[in-house]
Amino acid sequence: MTPRRRLCLALLLALPWAGQASAAAPLGFARRVACRERVEDVYWRHRLWPPENPGRKPPLAAVLSRRQIAAKVEESLRYEAALADLWHRPLTAAVLQAELERQARSTRRPEVLHELWAALGDDPSLVAECLVRPELAERRVRDWFASDPRFQADVRAQAERELAEAKSVAGLRGGAAKVSEREWSAAAPAERAPGPRRSGGAVPRGGDGPEPERFAARVAALARDFAGPADDRAWAPRAAGAPAAGSNAQLAALPLGALSPLREDADRFYVRSLLGRDAGRLRVATVEWRKATFAEWWAGERSRHAPRLPPAASYRLPAVKTEACRDDAWSVPPGLALPDARSEHTAVWTGSEMIVWGGGLAGAAVNTGGRYNPATDSWVATSLVGAPVARRLHTAVWTGSEMIVWGGAGLADSYAPAGGRYAPGTDTWVATAASGAPQGRIEHAAIWTGTEMIVWGGYDGIFLGGGARYDPAADHWVATSLTGSPTARSNHAAVWSGTLMIVWGGYGCMDGVPTGCPYAALRSGGRYDPASDTWSPTGTTAAPTARQDPAAIWTGSEMIVFGGWVQGINSYPSDGGRYDPVADAWLATPLAGAPAPRAGHAAVWTGAEHFRRFFRLAELHYDDKHTLWENYAPDVIEPGSQSKPGYVGWTGLPPIAVLFEDVFGIVPNAPANRLTWYVRLAEEHGVRRYPFGAAGVLDLECPARESVHDRPSIKIRSNVPLTLNVVWEGGAETLNVPQVSG
Description:
Blueprint: H1 3-14, H2 29-46, H3 66-87, H4 93-106, H5 110-119, H6 124-147, H7 153-165, H8 169-172, E1 178-185, H9 212-226, H10 248-252, E2 263-264, E3 268-278, E4 281-290, H11 294-301, E5 346-349, E6 354-357, E7 360-361, E8 364-365, E9 369-373, E10 378-381, E11 395-398, E12 403-406, E13 419-423, E14 428-431, E15 445-448, E16 453-456, E17 467-471, E18 476-479, E19 489-490, E20 493-496, E21 501-504, E22 507-509, E23 519-521, E24 525-529, E25 534-537, E26 551-554, E27 559-562, E28 576-580, E29 585-588, H12 609-625, H13 653-663, E30 666-669, E31 674-678, E32 685-692, E33 696-702, E34 715-718, E35 722-728, E36 731-737
Parallel strand pairs: 31-35
Antiparallel strand pairs: 1-4, 2-3, 3-4, 5-6, 6-9, 7-8, 9-10, 11-12, 12-13, 13-14, 15-16, 16-17, 17-18, 19-22, 20-21, 21-24, 22-23, 24-25, 26-27, 27-28, 28-29, 30-31, 32-33, 33-34, 35-36
């Protein structure tokens, strides 16, 4: 394509869709269902199907039927009817056009938004009616319900009556309100000792984290709860002479034992009381009256609002911004409706949206959540119908079609042994089996293997050294072996290698002390093989220093750990490590250029993600031209300069290395005369004349398999002797490859 043609195309894409204003006949219900099915299909195509999962990704109909889509369309029309009937806020054409323009202006994934439009034939009417209207109706009806005092008047009145009769927390116990107590600490204690559960179900954790800033922020929030109504704003300016937010002076000014004024957030009415304070430690009670949830209200209200088809209207597709996100920059779009602020929650990425659920909000656990769609830059609340009880410090994994949450700590049941499976396509919950489940816990680890969720370790008043495997297809639990398992611990890291769960670090019984052990940060770990239900230890030679709460990721051949902290001495190790489970060996990560030491952070592995689009574009070109270019533009199917037909020169080496190592899974270690092949693909693949060390040349071939769980029949020819480690979803084996001359 010439530069002039490319420029013309770019200008056409940037211009508004002139002449595409539409005023078609009103859409009937059946056509709305068919169009919405196209939208759901785009979302499903982008949903991540974990490579560990057996078999290929199923079609949309296997997880979301036409009947379920029709039910969603009907529900959205009922939501819109309620908006008009109760609040006189119908979704007019002007409202939909404004939302359409907001999405185009604010999208974080413009390519996906264009894909959604294209699925609807770039028809403005279909985009407005089948993409914008259903999602906007649900958001608006939830927002109006949450802000309408009519529907919470009874709860508020009950809270005010009970507060008028009781002057302290003790007087509120035994009533309709829930009372919980938590201890806040400015610094971690020298030793985290197990103890009985606190009254009200609070979790004894020996302090809530290493950051003094968190303690100061909580003191400031508590002071706002005790302030007058005029100052009940997080952003209220500090009056002249008032103590600084979170300071000792502000803490000393708080009344001991008194109840705060009645406060309100999205889910409850509540009061606070400071029960005790000494040397950077607070004991705080929260008394709350839960509001009626949207689901509870809608169950009784729904039948009053019959679905009705909106009239036809004219719409036009606006220009979509071309820049998804600037590199190394953060932005929060103005006016974006966000879930309530929280901590100790979970978040998973589905490929189409981020799902946030649970956590702690103003001292109490919650069971609310939200789904964020970056293509339309919008949030939708997760259903509360059938949702697990409120909790924090739980875990969540993504299976390809469901998010599974498990464990954590709530109010009534301190350590929750139950969990739930959430399907974002239908916005529905299903409880996980209680029979055979391990005891409830917090600060454990959970990983997804492709067929099972494995949970291990954690804390439930004592440190735990056991776990279990959960099969969502059978809704069945099986305990993991205790033989050879690592010492009991919490706050550890865990990754899935394709065949093994690797756990490392954490806080528990000191390494090497068999009985009467003191508690300490750990530098030991273990490798668990679910196929044989066996454990083997991770080596400690050259392992990073002991720590808890490290971040860990799996690269395809190694586990990398970084960060964390050491309780008791409150230090933050600056070192990290790379662990090879096949060789059971550690290598240190470099210190030069590393970020500042930290804990409670996150880490992701980009791996082949950066090159996936590159490979897709190259594949499209190869299918069309039967050749490859010497170098590539990153975003278009065009060669770079000085290209030669059918040739990949030195500029092609980086993507070739990524193809061999991150896609094919071939990881050489020539100095050790060893090659490891992580066979992830079921299709036939391999490499001829693969260079190995100074003089080695290999031919590697893996024939096609029915499933990634089947043993691969590797064919290898080498002019040097070597050891070949073959690892696949169902097992591993080691082959001694002889030298073949010629």
